Amino acid sequence: MSHLTIRPTAEEYNPYYNLYIRNIPAGHDPLQKLREQPKLLKKLLSDLTEEQGKLRYAPGKWSIKEMLVHMIDTERIFAYRALRIARGDQQPLPGFEQDDYVPASGADARTMQSILHEYDTVRAATLSLFESFGPEAFMRTGTASNSPTSVRALAYIVPGHEAHHLHILQERYLPLLAK
């Protein structure tokens, strides 16, 4: 899908999301990143115990399990936005408050196996959705969180958001487990 190797322009998304879009190297297909990320995630978490999944790198920060469920929830929401916009829906889509979602998720009471199964299921659905879009759908723009948002931008934001959290996992959580 060469049309996706061109990054979205600044008019296609809220400037905040540059934090995630910049995680997809210029000239790369963001859907390929979506295909590759599960392998990296599972490699990083393969030896994690249930108790280690509850690790927080600082007081008041999310546990590893909570971060994973946050990634899943966010991917679902962004894929839903992509579906609505790709289908031509012009109704403004509301934002969501991640800090309300995490405590309500009950992530720490879940097993890593159940979280990773949900992750795989959501990722398969996200890929199936994005792969179903033609080039014209990726260029459609709607409004999400009071900002213009294109389907192409969302295709970058989803893997970019995960890349952001995988970096945090590697930099802040995993070093604590190595001690």
TrEMBL record:
Spans traversing the lipid bilayer: none
Coiled-coil stretches noted in the UniProt entry, renumbered to this chain: none
Origin superkingdom: Bacteria
SUPFAM superfamilies in the cross-refs: DinB/YfiT-like putative metalloenzymes (SSF109854)
Signal peptide: none
InterPro entries named among the record's database cross-references: DinB-like, DinB/YfiT-like
Ranges for domain DinB-like: 34-168
Protein name: DinB family protein
